[in-house]
Amino acid sequence: MLKHLFPNQLALGFAQAGVTAVLAIVVGLVARKRGIHIEWETVVALIRGLAQIVAVGFILVLMLRGPQWTSGFMLGAMVIAAGTTSARRAKKVPGSFEVSFWSILVGSGSVIALMTWAGVIDGAITSIVPVGSMVIANSMNTNALALERFRSEVESHIGEIESALALGAAPEISVSPEVQRSFSASLIPALNNLRSLGLVWIPGLMAGMVLSGSSPLYAAIYQFVVIAMIFGSSGLTSLLCTSLIRKRIFTVAEQLAIAR
Amino acid sequence: MSILLQLEHLTRTVNGKTIVNDISLDVNAGDLLGIVGPSGAGKSSLLRLLNRLDEPTSGTVLLEGKDYREIPTRELRRRVGMVMQRPFVFPGTVADNLRFGPQQQGRTLSDDEIEQLLRGVGLAGYAAEDVGHLSGGEAQRVCFARALANQPKVLLLDEPTSALDEAAKFDVEAVIRKVSEQGVTSVLVTHDLQQARRLAMRVAQLQAGKLVRIGNVSEVLNVETSLS
User: B74, A168: Cβ pair inside 8 Å?
Assistant: First the structure.
């Protein structure tokens, strides 16, 4: 219906965004009826999300005409934003921004660099920025999950951790069960994505490639490649995050520093 | 009698509130010092300072004459063992729990050593038992044996019977008495004056973070009883 009303592609895009926004607002209003007040948060998130993605669209248009190095600049900015967002999930954990930043940078950066070098990701700006952003965004989510789970695991096992410390154990030994549980829990979404690929969902990248005329078989294989890359970078990010954070929750005198 | 632990003006302030206020006292070798006082008097907070689970804001502790900040923390905690209020056993068997402390120093306890430690806490034959099958009192006695496996000079006991029923409480008290008779110096925090009377050789009474009285059991507890 919209296609007939809006022959211009840009106008059609805004109209489609408007329809989906109405749907989201309806969800907010239904929630309000049940006493859950997310309507303002929904409106703000919708406006913010649209503004951000349109701005990125403009930047991509400019970058397509710009030099190659701008892709590195853009991915770097994404890592900083991802570190900030992820750290907000664990305000009580000392140094959560530094841990998030370095974990996401090394976790996603090394995978993007290695895969570009190997030719798995095309080095062109139009390819490296969208694929890189998917890798960074998933690393951000994994990092946030690892931080949040680690914080709650430590808070609910203070007695066990301090019992181990009181027996003369090193801090990293005292929190190793909490580190293991956080690492496993943070990888559940990435692992589920890999397991259910094609069965439960057909990701957007594959759908986009098919719509733009690529062979469906190649699109399917490339989608697997991206999901596997995401799993690799998520695993690396979580490993780094849990390794870095376990040191930060202890003082130099090996006392638990997390707020009780 | 030699002094094993010397607390010198020990103070801890948290968020502007002084929870341990300028406490100085000596713990003699072989002593069983009871620390009594109402809830919030700072008893457990004081105990946590003695093996540096928390850091004093000012003051220090001398262990056998040496400032404990000069002793590596892990070494200090092996020498000043602790049994917590609740029995936090690690997943696995009773023997796994007893091996944990010595393992941190690269030492493996033999089966005989484990059995001897378990006999000491009245749990002979429990080595292969999964800790998930233990009662609260048994788990607390495993924690005693686990702390003793490190051969500590001093054992800190933070209300070790407060989470137990009456029968288990007396079993644990028997262990405390036996450990003390074997010459292990102990500091027992308790809110139960009768327990302090039954077990302690000397008693220190705290109130609002301050040491208000210290002396032999009858001196301190008779004053306390007459005041309450």
Answer: yes
Q: How far is CA A145 from the centre of its chain?
A: 10
> pLDDT tens-digit profile of B190-225?
988 989 999 999 999 999 999 999 988 887 777 665
Helical H runs in A88-124? 96-118
Please tell me if residue A254 touches chain B, with a CB cutoff of 8 Å.
yes
d(CA A11, CA A5): 9
pTM of this structure = 0.81
In this prediction the ipTM stands at: 0.91
Q: What's the pLDDT at B224?
A: 61
Decide if A162 and B55 are in contact by the 8 Å CB cutoff: no
Nearby residues of A68 by Cβ (< 8 Å), 6 or more positions away: A123, A125
Looking at residue A202, its pLDDT comes to 67
What is the distance between the alpha carbons of residues B152 and B150, in angstroms, rounded to a whole number? 6
Tens digits of residue pLDDT in A106-138: 999 999 999 989 888 888 887 888 889 989 999
Residue from B24, B6, B35 nearest B158 by CA: B35
Across the interface, of B51, B75, B90, the residue whose CB is closest to A166 is B51
d(CA A10, CA A2): 12
Nearest chain B Cα to A253, which residue?
Answer: B73
Q: Does A251 touch chain B (CB under 8 A)?
A: yes
Contacts of B69 in chain A (CB under 8 A): 253
Cβ contacts of A166 on chain B, cutoff 8 Å: 51, 53, 77, 81-82, 84, 147
Under the banding of pLDDT at 50, 70 and 90, the label for residue A236 is very high
B150·A165 Cβ contact <8 A = no
Candidates A33, A234, A39; CA nearest to A142 is: A234
